[in-house]
Amino acid sequence: QALLFERVDALGGDLPEEDPDELEDRFEVIRQKAQRAVNARKEAARREAERLGMVAALNEVERPEEARSNREHQEAASREAESREAAQQEETRLREAREREARREEEEVQRMEAANAQQKR
Predict the structure, then answer these.
(1) DSSP string, 40-95
(2) What φ, ψ does residue 56 adopt, rounded to 5°?
(3) Alpha-carbon distances of 94 from 85, 90, 99, 101, 105, rounded to whole Å
(4) What digits encode the pLDDT tens for the residues 47-80?
């Protein structure tokens, strides 16, 4: 019953003067409806994936040139994406190297200025 009170409170409701078993039954009906909706969405997604797979298989048989062209296009797009990623990684590596070099140069300038200041004393 404590769990029931927590559920009702979480939903922002007040406990009516109803039988707790009746409330539990109502919650169970709502839970089952929600579960059925989730299951229906999963099943629809599975059917759609299956349909798309069948379409792809049919394309392989009925339109092999188009299917080959589609595969080649997908492969080229994948290679292009990999190339862009590699270029971006190289650009990042070069930028980081420039930043490290600039910091080293700045540190060297500061050391030289400190040494000059020390000599003047």
Answers:
(1) HHHHHHHHHHHHHHHHHHHHHHH-HHHHHHHHHHHHHHHHHHHHHHHHHHHHHHHH
(2) -65, -40
(3) 14, 6, 9, 11, 16
(4) 887 777 777 777 777 788 887 888 899 899 999 9
Residue appearing with tokens 């540190």: 107
Its sign, for the CA torsion 34, 35, 36, 42, is positive
Instruction: Tell me the C-alpha distance between 87 and 40, whole Å.
Output: 44
The rounded mean pLDDT for the chain is 83
Contact of 29 with 36, CB cutoff 8 Å? no
Query: Is 97 in a helix, a strand, or coil?
Result: helix
Contacts of 103 (CB under 8 A, 6+ apart): none
Distance CA 91, CA 97 (A): 10
